[in-house]
Amino acid sequence: MKQPLRSPAATRVAPPSPRASTPAKGPRRRAGEPATEDTIELGILDGFIGFHLRQAQDAAFRAFRRYPGLRDFKPGRFAVMMVIHYNPGITQSTLGRVIARDKSTVTPILQDLQRRGLIERHQSSHDLRNVRLNLTPLGERALSELLQHVHEHDKTLDRIVGDAKPVLLDLLRRIAVAMR
Fold this sequence. Notes:
Elements: H1 49-64, H2 75-86, E1 90-91, H3 92-98, H4 103-115, E2 119-123, E3 131-135, H5 137-161, H6 165-178
Antiparallel strand pairs: 1-3, 2-3
Helix pairs in contact: 2-5, 3-4
């Protein structure tokens, strides 16, 4: 077994409790045995919030895409459409800042949504450098249908987090604001 790696904060942070961590599901592997999904050890990684945020996000995204008709529709596109719906005429640059994505990430999403006929992009009459975004009537209908799936998906997450949802949302918002 490898010696545990130590981060600079390792001496200040207590190791995660066995109940709080997600230990290997099966027995520990013997020296020289190849690791399998059931015997992987995470070491100090198991105590990192960022690692678990990413794991939770990936699991939630995979579950989101299991709904019929959403296999090629990523959750980020839903977020983009919702922000445009609530903020018609939002600029592409403002949208990117709100959803914490840079231009190189936002542009392909918007191109895909435009290609599907879900959004319209127009140059601003006030500043030709800005692109203003609106949902099309097809986009509004698609968003309405998508919301049914999203509500079901969120109910699943609500069942998992239970009464802790307000605390979890507050913590996630605090992380997002503090880490900008």
